[in-house]
User: Fold this.
Amino acid sequence: MEKMLRKISLDDIEIPNIPDIAVRVLALLEDEYCPLKRLEEFILEDQALTAYILRIANAPFYKSGKSINTLTDAIMTIGMHNIVALVSVISLISQAATEGQDTDLMRHAIAVSTASALLARHAKVVTEDEALIAGLLHDIGKLVLFANAPSHYKAAKEKVKKEKRPFAEIENELFGFDHCDIGCMVARKWRLPGLYENTIRHHHDEEIKNFTDSQTIGYDDLLCSIVRLADKVVLDAGAGSGKSTEKNPQALLDLLKIGESVYIEIAKKIGG
Assistant:
């Protein structure tokens, strides 16, 4: 066990290129003459990707009204400007699933994206679609860690389960870095929007910037705060590995002007 738990270097982690399908989607989006129907037809060629997009667009309580049954409606619901980030992370998740990735990580990512969108709806300080994508992307570093060092990832997960401590805390002890560091490198290599990189990097930070006044905090940090709170809700509900790092959720609730009753109701929905 001690050999398995020896520290590894962040330099040893191979950061994957943005998935080929995401590159092709980006090329289609950059063509101003490309109709939405062409984008839909292209994505439909990948059944797993299509299923994930529809699943996310129909996430419980994300949108009210009728079910979303077509890819076009799903893309419009989530937002065209988010589709490249969405396709990228789903492709990585799908690849990991075929390589034996544990389902907890995928279940956690989708649950956090749902909780983030719900919280954003009530907070009204960030858009729901960006909250959904940020929630889906927040732990992308764990997928890369699993792909590069599966034995280390599994050892960290076992230690997390045994000691009931936060995953990032265990990672830093064992490796000298955590999934936030890896995820930030992925975001930069994939050229994801800065607001997502900010959330990936800082969703386990100890402090909350200017949490007494949401008017003095930047949009990117408000989005990160939404995901931090969503991550706690989901981990407390048992969807994911480890304990939440959040020590003062009330400060986040105050920042976002979300009442405790709303928070409890969202927790029940996620837990149910």
The chain has 15 helices and no strands. The mean pLDDT is 83. Residues 161 and 242 are 6 Å apart (CA to CA).
